[in-house]
Amino acid sequence: MNFPQVLGERIRELRKQAGLTQEQAAEAAGISGKYLGEVERGEVNVSSVILHKLAEVLGVDIVDFFRSQHLRPISELKEEMKRFIDTDKEENIRLLYRIFTAVFR
After folding, report:
1. Domain residues of the chain, as ranges?
2. Does domain 3-71 have CATH number 1.10.260.40?
3. What's the rounded Cα separation, in Å, for the pair 75 and 81?
4. Which contacts qualify for 81-85: CB closer than 8 Å, 24 or more apart?
5. Does pTM surpass 0.85?
6. Which residues contact 70 (CB under 8 A, 6 or more apart)?
7. Could you tell me the end-to-end alpha-carbon distance of the chain, in angstroms, rounded to an integer?
8. 63 vs 65: CA distance, rounded Å
9. pLDDT in tens, 3-62
10. Vertex 25, ends 50 and 31: CA angle to 5°?
11. Max Cα–Cα distance, the chain, nearest Å
């Protein structure tokens, strides 16, 4: 996965967390929905001006687009989580359960 794809995936993730459709986010940022779709698919390079506008619309700091843990492919994150769960360490499983229930309740 190349950088524009990883960045686009992160923008899509943050947009969904904000509860916005592509059209809503694009309109608020002053860009077309088609262009935002291209950004989210990693088909275009996005300017810093557009990133700044999207950060404002999504209610995040622009650096949130570049946090390293979010730039890793989702498949890698899933594999790492699976390895964490699949260990026989009871404390790992209990810790993950506490975190999961605290976040998703």
Report:
1. 3-71, 74-104
2. yes
3. 10
4. none
5. no
6. 10, 13, 64
7. 33
8. 5
9. 888 899 999 999 999 999 999 999 999 999 999 999 999 999 999 999 999 999 999 999
10. 45
11. 51
On whether the CB atoms of residues 57 and 82 are closer than 8 A, the answer is: no
- φ/ψ of 2, rounded to 5, equals -85, 170
Residue among 92, 90, 98 at smallest CA distance from 80: 92
Q: Which structure tokens are listed for 100?
A: 């999961």
Q: What are phi and psi of 87, to 5 degrees?
A: -70, 160
pLDDT digit string (tens) for 73-93? Answer: 778 878 888 887 787 778 878
- The H helix count followed by the E strand count for the chain is 7, 0
